[in-house]
Amino acid sequence: MGKVVLVTGVxxxxxxxxxxxxxxxxAVSRVIGVDAVPPRGDIGEVSFVRADIRTPVIAKxxxxxxxxxxxxxxxxxxxxxxxxxxxxKELNVIGTMQLLAACQRAPSVRHVVVKSTTTVYGAxxxxxxxxxxxxxxxxxxRAGYAKDVAEVEGYVRGFARRRGDVRVTLxxxxxxxxxxxxxxxxxxxxLPVVPTVAGxxxxxxxxxxxxxxxxxxxxxxxxxxxxxxxxxxxxVMLSQALRRLRRPTLALPGFAVGSLGSAxxxxxxxxxxxEQVSFLTYGRGVDTTRMRTxxxxxxxxxxxxxxxxxGATLPRTGGRAERLLDGLAAAxxxxxxxxxxxxxLRPVDDDERRVPGGRHG
Length: 361
Known about the structure:
The chain is of the alpha/beta class. It has 14 helices and 13 strands. It has helices spanning 13-23, 57-65, 79-82, 85-105, 144-162, 184-189, 209-221, 238-244, 254-266, 274-282, 289-295, 303-311, 319-331, 350-354; strands spanning 3-8, 28-35, 47-50, 69-72, 111-117, 167-173, 175-177, 194-197, 203-204, 206-208, 226-230, 236-237, 249-252. Helix 1 packs across helix 7 (209-221), helix 2 packs across helix 4 (85-105) and helix 4 (85-105) runs parallel beside helix 5. The radius of gyration is 24 Å and the shape is globular. The N and C termini lie far apart (86 Å).
């Protein structure tokens, strides 16, 4: 008999699409999708149950469906999508508490997979070149999404200690990008003019949405427990990313970027939190050795390839800014790239040195 998997957060696009893809796996008997509101798109063979994980009703769902594997994807990053910061914190923290309490009481549960994020490491001037899974953030988050994630991971570790018979797989995923992803970072990169923090060029490490689905599927079907950083190969600097995406930029002091971010957040154009501004100042890098050696997962797309696929869906910026960027891209190719019209060097003989203008003199 195959696995019976419960997936939270299926009202959002990533959760819905993952649950649907998982349901097509012959090793999985049933997939139950849970959320407080119904998903908008087609969920295929997924059985949807309308339930709020912040309430004890989730325990009844797990018991009734005889669930043996839980995939928690309900930790959200954007207050606007949740109806405000207070609701977002309840969904993230209280929802996780209730879900883990239900799993603790359910004897059928044997595996819990939690989608976390590298945001838990924060971003500051004191950060190491690469964070490993054993490292702590240099500055503990005091508010916002990063604090929610830190609390969620604390509850997950507590659950793992109380239920030593349950495999717990915690996936700290880098920023996910792709044609269908709506997140603070993708909203930022979609702006017609992208504000940057003057004097800083942060590193970006990305994960393509298809690789997110693949690593979640991999974690569900493999008997591997532990905490794993998950990201595509390599890093890109923000300046490189914006050139490749053909986005005009506006360099501003850090406080001005924060003020502009507040205005954009109020207008629901992009979600600029203080932690987002820190990330756009200092960036972040994570070591993925454990992902490859212990989890046994290898992303298909690198950071640069994930960025390229995301950029293919962006609307053209148009006008003078685009023409200027195209001209600069042609005149100054990026490191490792070659100009479209290379001029090979030709050796000059002694006769040409004597005649002004060479052979054309």
